[in-house]
Predict the structure.
Amino acid sequence: MEVFNAILGRRSIRKYLDKPIEDGKLLKILEAARWAPSSRNTQPWTFIVVKKEETRKKLKELAYGQDFVQQAPMVLVVCAKKGSNWVNIGLTIQNICLEAYELGLGTCIVGWFDREKTKELLEVPDGWEVAYLIPLGYPAESPKSNRRKLEEMIHWEKW
């Protein structure tokens, strides 16, 4: 698959099939995440793979009742070294989302949740913070996407 096609096709998925994710696909997604660029090659990320229903239910509660957090068969919890530049975290998340799409899986980047309580729940050590939750699974929907026209967001030389 061409990268541009993945960029155009990937959507935020909030409905998932009740189908487990193969270990090989998960490892390929995490390998893609590992290869994301980072400033000064700091690689300031780590991932917690959450599969247990009970833990996903607690994550849903900490995500203010966003049902799809629990409904997805898996949640990748992206953690960042405290004080690191979150642009680096965004780069690794983009790799996760694009590779998942290529493998026929859906994702949604969740930033609205109680980070401190999630850190406690998952026993994230000092020096690290929970950055984002990424529910992961086979999509049960194909949402449309609206984008502004390219000419609305480009300025040549000056505003």
